[in-house]
Amino acid sequence: MTGMPGLPPPRPIPLRDRAQLVFVERARLDVRDGAFCAVNADGTVTQLPVGGLAGLMLEPGARISHAAVALAARTGTLITWVGEGGVRLYSAGQPGGARSDKLLWQASLALNDAARLRIVRRMYQIRFGEAAPERRSIDQLRGIEGVRVRESYALLARKYGVKWSRRKYDPKDWEAGDTPNRCLSAATACLHGLTEAAVLAAGYAPAIGFLHTGKPLSFVYDIADLWKLQTVVPEAFRIAGEAAKGRLDMAPDRAVRLACRDAFRRSGLLSKIIPQIEIVLAAGDLPKPVPAPDMLGPAFEDEEDGGDDGHRG
């Protein structure tokens, strides 16, 4: 990896030391004089500390140059291309990439029915602060969690004076949803973006989940759910309540993003996600794969890594 002449090459900063997410719309991202920047429609330029961010979420109207993508990859910053409000994921970069040892361990845990159940039970305990009911299958635990989440939504709606019926939104039509559902969608998009950056930084695969399966971000949903009810969901209902009373001076989805940013800072979420991933997977009680004794080493030794395990350095 090369840097600018006379300067050392950039090294990824550990995720725990980074700021949160930045949403970009109707701007062009580029590199000027070695700095990552956003060029607005009126020609003004805003520099972004790309190496200090967990991720960039590009909404409709955003464009990005090859140089900007390359710099984000070198600094270990996730870039995702999303729909309006962040509710639809079109594509994502992979600044770290899964590490083979961690990917094999994650896959072996997911393929072992007993280990997978132990992990799901541990996630339940972390999420709700009590042990999961005994002699329940994963499908049964998923159903129990769904009921508890719906009850939490109803309680928060009453607390903040929000008219609430059920969770319903169309990712293809952002404007079709009511304000509470749009607030929830914006809030969960923030949390999922942050969690995906953490999963990649830790060296794991976003698609290999345990409670959630069959989706490109199944493991992201598993991990994000551990904090959803304590961080972003209350903020979403609070903002929806403020909007219903006419107390907002900005669009509800923007207010939700700012509130989520503040909630992430208060909770210190970035410093907690990666350690919690390791705790969750350790509950599967399977050893990590040991390299084969006759395996070939690399033809060329890599430079010393920076950042987290999954960062390329």
From TrEMBL:
Gene3D superfamilies: CRISPR-associated endonuclease Cas1, C-terminal domain (1.20.120.920), CRISPR-associated endonuclease Cas1, N-terminal domain (3.100.10.20). Mn(2+) binds at residues 145, 212, 225. Belongs to the CRISPR-associated endonuclease Cas1 family. Residues 292-313 are annotated as: Disordered. Its EC number is 3.1.-.-. Keywords: Antiviral defense, DNA-binding, Endonuclease, Hydrolase, Magnesium, Manganese, Metal-binding, Nuclease. CRISPR (clustered regularly interspaced short palindromic repeat), is an adaptive immune system that provides protection against mobile genetic elements (viruses, transposable elements and conjugative plasmids). CRISPR clusters contain spacers, sequences complementary to antecedent mobile elements, and target invading nucleic acids. CRISPR clusters are transcribed and processed into CRISPR RNA (crRNA). Acts as a dsDNA endonuclease. Involved in the integration of spacer DNA into the CRISPR cassette. Homodimer, forms a heterotetramer with a Cas2 homodimer. The keyword Magnesium applies. InterPro entries: Cas1 (IPR050646), Cas1_I-E (IPR033641), CRISPR-assoc_Cas1 (IPR002729), CRISPR-assoc_Cas1_C (IPR042206), CRISPR-assoc_Cas1_ECOLI (IPR019851), CRISPR-assoc_Cas1_N (IPR042211). It comes from Actibacterium naphthalenivorans. Its cofactor is Mg(2+); Mn(2+). This is CRISPR-associated endonuclease Cas1. Pfam families: Cas_Cas1 (PF01867). One of its GO terms (biological process) is defense response to virus. It comes from the Bacteria.
